[in-house]
């Protein structure tokens, strides 16, 4: 019973024998159904939830509560961003305010990848170069570790054979020697 307006209505459940009541005879606070309205369209929220392959079925109550929780989260997030805009004497919330709110509040830390702090193009290029250099250094360290492992293995073979040439084929890494020019590039 969900419409496009986001309204969820259900018939009240029949009174069960186990229904809790207070000493004055009134019902408990939780009636077993979620009632109310939400600003987000419930049908669309349900469709988004069903995009997850692990979700087979979802009840209307769960969809309503997820919609309501999403609204409360967005309200809190935008309020934090709006406070930052007010500090700068602006009435319009910008991306910069959202990104600053994410960095300043620990509860929004999970959004750092989604809403990163803005940076200039030159800073982004430098950051990308640094990441590439770090990746290349990691690759070179792995190569050095492999060469050490191959070298220690070759050394043990040499000790066993003492002067005789090894019958196993030599890998490409073992056959290459470093030149002074190669060392300068590192």
What does this structure look like?
The protein is an all-alpha fold. Among the domains are: 33-111, Histone, subunit A, CATH 1.10.20; 119-156. 53% of the residues lie in helices and 2% in strands. Strands 1-2 form a two-stranded antiparallel sheet. Helix 1 packs across helix 2 and helix 2 (60-87) packs across helix 3 (95-104). The longest helix has 41 residues, at 121-161. Residues 17-26 have low confidence and may be disordered.
Q: According to CATH, what is the topology of the domain at 33-111? A: Histone, subunit A
Q: SS-based structural class?
A: mainly alpha
Assign the CATH superfamily of the domain at 33-111: Histone, subunit A
Mean pLDDT: 75
CATH top level label of the domain at 33-111: Mainly Alpha
Number of helices: 6
Shape: flat
* Percentage of β-strand residues: under 5%
Separation of the first and last Cα atoms: 67 Å
Unreliable segments of 5+ consecutive residues: 17-26
User: Can you write the helix and strand succession as a string?
Assistant: EEHHHHHH
User: Major sheet, described briefly?
Assistant: 2 strands, antiparallel
Across the major sheet, the strand order is 1-2
Helix content bin: 40-55%
Q: Report Rg.
A: 32 Å
Q: Count the E strands.
A: 2
What would CATH call the architecture of the domain at 33-111?
Orthogonal Bundle
Reconstruct the topology from this structure.
Elements: E1 7-8, E2 36-37, H1 42-50, H2 60-87, H3 95-104, H4 121-161, H5 172-175, H6 180-185
Antiparallel strand pairs: 1-2
Helix pairs in contact: 1-2, 2-3
């Amino acid at each position: 019973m969900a419409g496009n307006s986001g309204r969820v209505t259900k018939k009240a459940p029949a009174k069960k024998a186990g229904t809790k009541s207070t000493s004055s005879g009134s019902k408990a606070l939780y009636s077993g159904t979620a009632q109310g309205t939400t600003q987000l369209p419930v049908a669309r929220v349900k469709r988004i939830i069903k995009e997850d392959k692990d979700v087979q079925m979802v009840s209307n109550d769960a969809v309503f509560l997820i919609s309501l929780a999403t609204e409360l989260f967005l309200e809190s997030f935008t309020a934090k961003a709006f406070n930052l805009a007010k500090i700068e004497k602006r009435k319009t919330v910008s991306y910069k305010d959202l990104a600053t709110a994410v960095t300043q509040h620990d509860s929004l830390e999970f959004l750092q990848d989604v809403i990163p702090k803005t940076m200039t193009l030159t800073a982004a290029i430098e950051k990308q170069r640094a990441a590439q250099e770090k990746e290349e250094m990691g690759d070179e360290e792995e190569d050095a570790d492999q060469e050490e492992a191959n070298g220690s293995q070759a050394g043990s073979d040499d000790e066993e054979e003492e002067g005789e040439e090894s019958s196993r084929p030599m890998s490409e890494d073992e056959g290459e020697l470093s030149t002074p020019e190669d060392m300068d590039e590192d």
